[in-house]
Amino acid sequence: MAFWQARDFLFCSVCGTLLDFDSVRSASCPLCGFKRKAKAIEGKETRYAVTDEDIRRELKIEPFVTLESAPKMDVIVQRVVVDETCPKCGHPQLEYHTKQLRAADEGQTVFYECPECRHNFKVNN
């Protein structure tokens, strides 16, 4: 028995069409009439895998742009400034950004950096 026959037991051996179970004793091909006994199929398992690429192809969605495939650009990030005093040098303003590091029902972590002395620290809210 060929490898594909052992693996593709739900398909017609003649034309490859999916078999229909027309009775509890046999399955037949709706295209060419080939019949396979149900005993030959009984107890076998069918498995298949669907990848993200398969889903995108089926839904006609363009692939995601990854950092590796994205064009290289110089990115300038400007941080938000807050009127808070630096605990190290006393500068009157700090730059900050936030990030969710803990569970979604807990507050974000705020990261501060002094533009003068580059002292940085974080506060968990």
From TrEMBL:
Zinc finger (C4-type): 12-32
Domain of life: Eukaryota
Locations listed in the record: Nucleus, Nucleolus
Keywords: DNA-directed RNA polymerase, Metal-binding, Nucleus, Transcription, Zinc, Zinc-finger
Chain sites annotated for binding Zn(2+) 1: 12, 15, 29, 32
SMART domains in UniProt: ZnF_C2C2
Cellular component terms per the entry's GO annotation: RNA polymerase I complex
GO molecular function: DNA-directed RNA polymerase activity; nucleic acid binding; zinc ion binding
All copies of domain TFIIS-type, residue ranges: 82-122
Binding sites annotated in the UniProt record for Zn(2+) 2: 86, 89, 114, 117
Pfam families (UniProt xref): Zn_ribbon_TFIIS (PF01096)
GO BP, sorted A to Z: termination of RNA polymerase I transcription
PANTHER family: DNA-DIRECTED RNA POLYMERASE (PTHR11239), DNA-DIRECTED RNA POLYMERASE I SUBUNIT RPA12 (PTHR11239:SF14)
Function summary: DNA-dependent RNA polymerase catalyzes the transcription of DNA into RNA using the four ribonucleoside triphosphates as substrates.
Family: Belongs to the archaeal rpoM/eukaryotic RPA12/RPB9/RPC11 RNA polymerase family.
Record-given protein name: DNA-directed RNA polymerase subunit
Species of origin: Brachypodium distachyon
Encoding gene (name): LOC100824554
